[in-house]
Design brief:
It holds the Pfam family MarR. InterPro entries: HTH_MarR-typ, MarR/SlyA-like, WH-like_DNA-bd_sf, WH_DNA-bd_sf. Residues 9-140 form the HTH marR-type domain. There is one protein chain. The protein is mostly helical and 147 residues long. The chain has a single domain (3-121), classed as Winged helix-like DNA-binding domain superfamily/Winged helix DNA-binding domain (Arc Repressor Mutant, subunit A, Orthogonal Bundle). 67% of the residues lie in helices and 7% in strands. The chain contains six helices and two strands; from the N terminus they run H-H-H-H-E-E-H-H. Strands 1-2 form a two-stranded antiparallel sheet.
């Protein structure tokens, strides 16, 4: 890799790190519900796709099943999700969003909308799509291949 490209990538890394910190700060400033982004992602996943096994949630969030247990415990204790028996495999449990969970998810969507507007409102739809395409490409590249 040439030196100019290397400098640009280093600068990009710094910018992405700053954006990540800004995103976390925006979340913390608007988060009146007391849940992390991961908690909200779990609620959204269960709302959109119905009851799921913890392993499916782990796959979606790219965390371990132990991580899912930690995250879902808070949601279960708050009454936002519940454990149910799997319809066909009684040995397996599933997690299901409750009515209260749907309500808190709707509140969180309003918070997320404010955060998104604060962070990305100045970008056009095309610019947002370009960012998404680039970040998706970075996530899907084979890390062993270098150009």
């Amino acid at each position: 890799m040439d030196q100019e490209k290397q400098r640009a990538i280093t600068s990009l890394f710094e910018v992405v790190s700053s954006i990540e910190r800004k995103w976390a700060n925006e979340w913390n400033n608007h988060n009146v519900l007391g849940f992390s982004k991961s908690h909200i992602l779990i609620l959204d996943f269960l709302s959109q796709e119905g009851p799921k096994r913890p392993s499916a949630i782990a796959d979606r969030l790219k965390v371990t099943t132990g991580g899912v247990t930690v995250l879902t415990s808070k949601l279960i204790n708050a009454g936002f999700i519940e454990k149910t028996q799997h319809a066909t495999d009684r040995r397996a449990s599933q997690l299901k969003i409750t009515t209260d969970g749907e309500d808190i998810l709707e509140e969180s969507r309003q918070q997320v909308s404010e955060i998104i507007n604060n962070m990305f409102g100045m970008l056009s739809a095309e610019e947002v799509q370009t960012l998404r395409d680039i970040f998706s490409k970075l996530l899907n590249t084979d890390s062993t291949r270098h150009e």
